[in-house]
Amino acid sequence: MMQSPALRGRCELVVDATGVGGPVVDLLRAARLGCPVVAVTITGGDAAVQVGTAWKVPKRDLILGLQVMFETGGFRRRRSL
């Protein structure tokens, strides 16, 4: 999907780097998908912090963001092909 002509060079892939997610991020970066791969580690902290090209984000911030998207209709599930 990330290599489709419609998305190539116009997107970022955000990946959960928590726990064993770090090696997955490394594999995705090595695959050269045609877009930046942004690593996000989910924490119990108080604030989102950028560390180089990666982020550390509190779980509560992620849940709150999803809740707002569900309530405003900003989150849509794509049907399987």
Question: What is the topological layout?
Answer:
Layout (H helix, E strand, L loop, with lengths): L12 E4 L4 H10 L6 E7 L5 E3 L2 E5 H14 L9
Parallel strand pairs: 1-2, 2-4
Antiparallel strand pairs: 3-4
Descriptors for this entry?
four-stranded mixed beta sheet, alpha/beta, 81 residues, 23% strand
Report the principal-axis shape.
Answer: flat
How would a crystallographer describe the biggest sheet? Answer: 4 strands, mixed
* Count of discrete domains: 1
End-to-end C-alpha gap: 12 Å
Q: Spans of 5+ residues with little confidence (pLDDT < 50)?
A: none
Which structural class is indicated by helix and strand composition?
alpha/beta
Count of runs of 4 or more consecutive helical residues? 2
Spatial order of the strands forming the largest sheet: 1-2-4-3
- Radius of gyration (CA) equals 14 Å
Strand content: 15-25%
Q: What is the string of helix and strand elements?
A: EHEEEH
Overall residue-averaged pLDDT value: 88
- Multimeric organization: single chain
For the secondary structure, the number of strands is: 4
Proportion of residues in helical segments:
25-40%
